[in-house]
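Q: A reviewer asked whether we had any structural model of the full assembly, not just the individual parts. We don't, so I'm hoping you can provide one. Inputs are below.
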Amino acid sequence: METSDKKPTETPAAESRFTVSPITLLADLWMGRLIRFGGLGVVLAVFGMLAFLVLQVFPLFVGARVEALPALTVPASAVAFGEDEYGELPYVVLADGTIHFQRGSDGAKVQEWSPALVGRTVTAVRSYPRAGLVFLGLSDGAVLEAKVSYRATFDAGGKRALQPIVTPLEPVQVGSPGLPCLGVWNAKGAQSRLLVVRQESAGRPKLSAVRITERKGLGGKARVTASAPFAVAPELSDLEQVLLPSTADSLLVVTGTGEVRAYSDDGVGMPLLQVFRPFADAADARISAAGLVFGHVSVVLVGQTGVHQVWSIYPQAQPDGRSLRRWGKIHDPEKLPGPAVGIFAAEGNKCYLVGAGGELQLRNMTTDTLRWQGPAPAGRVAQVAFAGNYDRFTALTVDGKLHRWKLEDHHPDSSWGAFFGKIWYEGATEPAYTWQSSSGSDEFEAKYSLVPLFYGTVKGTFYALLFALPIALTAAVYVSQFLRPEYRQIVKPVMEVMASLPSVVLGFLAGLWLAPLVDPHLVSLFCALGVLTPAALGAGFLWSALPQPWRRQVRPGMEFVWLLPFIALCCWLAWQAGPSIEAAFFTVKDTASGAPLADFREWWRQTTGMSYDSRNCLVVGFVMGFAVIPIIFTIAEDALSNVPQSLISGSLALGASRWQTVWSVVIPTAISGIVSAVMIGFGRAIGETMIVVMATGNTAVMEFNPFSGMRTLSANIAVELPEAAAGHTHFRALFLGACCLFLLTFVINTLAEVLRQRLRERYKVV
Amino acid sequence: MTATMNPNPSRIQVRPATERDGRRDYISIRDYGFWYGQKQALEGISLDIPERQVVAFIGPSGCGKSTLLRNLNRMNDLVDGIRHVGDITIKGRSIYDPGLEVISLRRRVGMVFQKSNPFPKSIYENVVFALRVMGVRDRSILDEACETSLRKAALWDEVKDRLQDSALGLSGGQMQRLCIARAIANRPEILLMDEPCSALDPIATGKIEELIHELKEQFTIVIVTHSMQQAARVSDRTAFFYLGKQIEYDTTEKIFMNPSQAQTEAYISGRFG
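A: Here is a predicted structure for the entire assembly that you could use as a starting point for your response.
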C-alpha cells in the first residue's frame, strides 16, 4: 500500500520539475509587450513630431479664402466710401459732398452730413477710409477736409451703438482760384502733409500742391502752417492718373501715352526725377491701371493687354558712378486676362487686388503669387478698401452697390518662392535670399528665405567636420591600433567625459574667450595648425629612418613619448614665427598714416574684399569640432577595436606592416562603424545650437568666407522663437526651418544607414 | 610491431621518414626559453628543423607548442611583457637580429591559423594580399600568383569562376585552403600551421593533409596539431612538448613506434593529455 501511495505523489513532483512557473511566463509575456510598446512608441514619437511640424507649417501654403457677403445698396451718386474699423457703419460720399451713413447689417440709413458751402459746389471727392478722412475739392480750387470719427455709446440695456461724428476743417486754397478741382489727393508724411489738386485750364491738366506742416509746441496747441500753393509738373500735357505716396515726398503721374513721370520733393518744389515707359516694347504702350502697394515705394502697372509689371525705387548705379534712388522694374508677374480696371493695395502687407477681364485677383507683389481669384462685381469698381487687420475688403461700384467680402489670409507673404527662392524685395538692388524677420518699422516687410540659414548650417557643419573628422578618425585609429592598452584605458574615458561637456559652456568659451584670443594671433595659429601634420609625418619619417636597435629601445605603442614633444616643439616654433610671416606676407598700408601695417585681418579685407568678423566660422568650427570629436572618436574607436584580432594577425603574418594592416584590413572591416561615427558627428554638428548662437554673430549671410559669421537653422529657431507670435507667419516660418532641419537630418541619416548596411554586408566578418 | 606501441594501429598509419636533400638545421632552436610576463611558457627548447620536411609539434593543451610556433615568425611581438632567452636561427641568421625587420621575417615565414581568417575581401584580393603589401602592382603578376597559389592549395577548380566574390561565402574547408593559398602566394620558405584542421570535418581535413604533402616539396612546414593521427600521417619529424618542455624530438616513426620517453608513450597512447 505504501508503494502505491507513494507513486501518485512522486509523479506530479517529477512532472513539476519540467513545468514552467507562471511568473516566468507572465514576465516573458509582459516584458515582450513592454518592449514592443517602447519600440512602437519611439516610431510614433518620431512621426508624431514630424506630423506636428507639418501641421504647424501647413497653413503657410494655403492661399487666401474669400467669401462674398451681401452687398449694400447705397445712393447711386456715391463716388467714395469709408467705414469704421469693423464695417458696422460704413459711409458713402455722394458727388455733392454729402456723407451718408448706413448700417452695415441691414443698410438702413443712420445719419447724413452735408458740407456747408457758400456759393461753391463739390467737384471732386476723395476718401481715405483707413484715416477716416474725406477731401472735397471745391469749384473754386479750394479743398475742404472732413474727419469722420465714431463714438461708441451704450444704452440702458448695455447695447452698443456707434455714433458717427464728422468734423470739417476750414477749406484750404490749393489750386488756382476760379478753376474747379477735378481731383484731390492727400498724403501725410513724417514731417508734413501734402495736398494736391488737379485742375484743368485750356485743356491742359494743372497740378498744384500745398505743404502743410504741423508743429507741436511744448504742451501748447499744434501750430499749423500751410505753404503757398505751388505748381507741380507744369510741363504736363495730359494726365491719366496721379499716385501720391504716403511718404509725401514724391508724386507719380501716369500719362495717357504710357509714361510714368516721377517727381520728387527737393525742399523747394517738386522737380521731375525720372520718366519711364514700362510698356514701351508693347504694341499699345498705354497703361490701363497703376497703383501703389503698401509701403508706397512700389507701383504696380498693368498695360492694355494685361501685361503686368512692378516698379520700385531702389539705389541704382548711375553712369557717373554714384548710386541714386531711382525707379526700376523689380517684378514681372504673370499676365492678367485683360486691361486692369484698378489696382487696390491692401493695408499692412504687399497684397493688392486687381480687377481685370471680369474677375478679381488678390496677388502678392513681393512673391508674385496669386492668392485668390473670383468674379468681379457687375458695376465698375470705383474704390476698394481693405480692413486694417486684413480680414475684409469692400468695393464701391458706380451702380450704387457696396460689395463686401470676408477675407481669410493669415500668411499673405508666404509661398515656396518666399522661403526657398530668390526674391527681389523693395529697396534691394537685386533678387536675393534674405532672412530678416523683424525691424523697427510697421511698413517693414519680413523676409523669410530659409536658404541663408541652410547655407549657414552647411557652412558651420563643414568647418566643424573639417576640423573634427581628421582629428577624431586618426585619433581613433591610433588609440585602437597603436597605443598601448593601458593608455587607451585612460584616453577613452577622458574623451567620453569630453562628450558630455554642455555645449553652452563650449559656446561661452568660444565666444568670450577663444574668439578674442585667436583674433590677434591668427597667423601664428594657422602656422601652428599647418605645421601639425607635416610635423607628425616628419616625426614618423625620422622614426623609421632610425636604426632598428635604437627603435627597439622604445616599446611598440610608446612612440608618442618622444613624438609629442617633437610636435609640440614644431608647433611652438611655428607659432613664434607667426608675426614674422604676417609681416612678410600680410602687410597692408595703414589708411590713416600710410605706414605699412602687418595685419592679416586688414589684409584679408582688402585682398579678398570679404568681411572679417572676430566671431567667425573658424572659431565655431574649432569649438563645434571640439564638441563633435568625442562622439566620432568613441564610436569609430569602438568599431576599430572590434575588428577581430585574427584578421590583424593574419595580415601581420603575411608580412604587412602595421600601417598596411590598419589601412587594408582594419579600416575596411570597420568601415560601417566609421561611417556611423561620421554620420552621428554630422548629425550633432548640424543640429548644434548653443555654440553657434554664442560664438557667431548670427548674421544670415551667404558667403563661404571662413572669417565671417553665419546663422544656422537651429540657432535661428533658438534666437527667434521666443519673440515670434504664435500662429504668425514668422512663427510658422521658424517651424518650417525646424521641419527642413528634421528632413535634412532624416534624409542624411537614412542615406548613411543604407550606406552603412551595404558596407556592413560587404565587409562583414564571419 | 605496432600492436604494443600503438593503442589503435588501424587508425594511425606512420609514414616512413623520407630524407630529402637540404639543410638539416634549416631552422635551429637553441636553449630557447620564453616568458609571458612572470609565467614561463617555454623552457630549454633545442631542436633543428630540416629543410623541406614537415615537423609536427604535439602535446596537451598549454604545453607551449603554439607559443613556440608563433615565435618562429615573431607573432608574439605585440603581446605585452614577453621575454626570451636562447636563440632561434633560420638559415643561420637569428630572427632576433637587430638588423632584421620583423616584416621581412614574416614574408619568409608564412603562417596559417587555427581558425580560418579570410579578410572581408574578394577571393582574389585575399590571395594577392601579401603581394599587394609588398608593393606589387602589375596585374599579370598578381593574376599569375593568384592562380598558382590557388592551384597549389587545390582550390583553383572550385573558385576559378568566382574570384571576385567575397571570400566569406566559401565553406569552412575552402576558407582554410584559401588561407593556405594566401600564405604561399608570396612564396615564403617556411610555412607555420597552427592546428589548421581543428575546425574542419574529416573530408576537408583529408584535403588539407594531402595538400601538406604536396607543399613540402617546396616549403619547410611546421605544424601544431592536437590530432596524433594527423601528426603521424603528415609529418616527417615530431616534437612532443609537455608543460613548456621539449620531452622528445625525433622522426615521426620513432616517436609513434618507439618513443624513448615514457611520457611520450603515455601521451600518444591516450593515457593523458
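A: Points you may want to mention in the reply: The two ends of chain B are 24 Å apart (CA to CA). Chain B touches chain A through 34 residues (CB under 8 Å).
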